[in-house]
Amino acid sequence: METKPLTLGEMAASLNRSPVYVSGLQKRFELPVFSGAAYSPAYVAFLRGLTALRTFDVAEETLRDLWHLERKLLHLLHVDTTGSPTWYLDSCGQTNQMKRRLLLTNHDLGVEIHTRMLQPGLNFTAGVPELFGGPEMGEDALRVLSQYITLQGRICAGVQAERPLVREALEWSKRLKPET
Q: pLDDT averaged over the chain?
C-alpha cells in the first residue's frame, strides 16, 4: 500500500486504470477531488476496493447503493469527528478486526456487524445535538444497518460465486505472452 499522498495520475497508475476512469469514479461516488499530491493512502485504498469488487463483477450501481448506506449509517452514528473532507475514507486500508468493519469505508463499528448490536444513541462528535432524534426524523441506524447487511451479503455471495471464474481467468492469462 502507498504511504505518501499521490497525484491523480499516480493514483490511476497504482490502480492500473486511466485518470479518466478514476475521475469518473470520483464523480459517480461523489468523492472530493484535489489537485497535486493530495490523495491519501486511505483514499487510494477505497478506490482499490471498488476496483477489486468491479473485477468480481459487482455492479457499480450496487456499490453506489452500499456506499450511500455506509455513509448514511456513519452520519447517523455521528462518526465525523475530524472535520476532514475525506473523514469517511480515513479507515480504508485497515486490515484488523474485519468482521467489525464496513465493506467500503472500512470503518470499525466496534462490534461484529452481523450481530446487529449497534448502540444507536452513541454520538462520536461533540457537536450540538439535533432538535429531534433520528427515529423522529425517520432515520433509524438499526434499519439502515439491516439494509446494509442485506446488500453486503448479496455482494459477498456474488464475489464468492465469481472467485472460481477469476481463478480460471488468471490461469488462462498465463498463456498470454507479451510480444517482444
A: 85
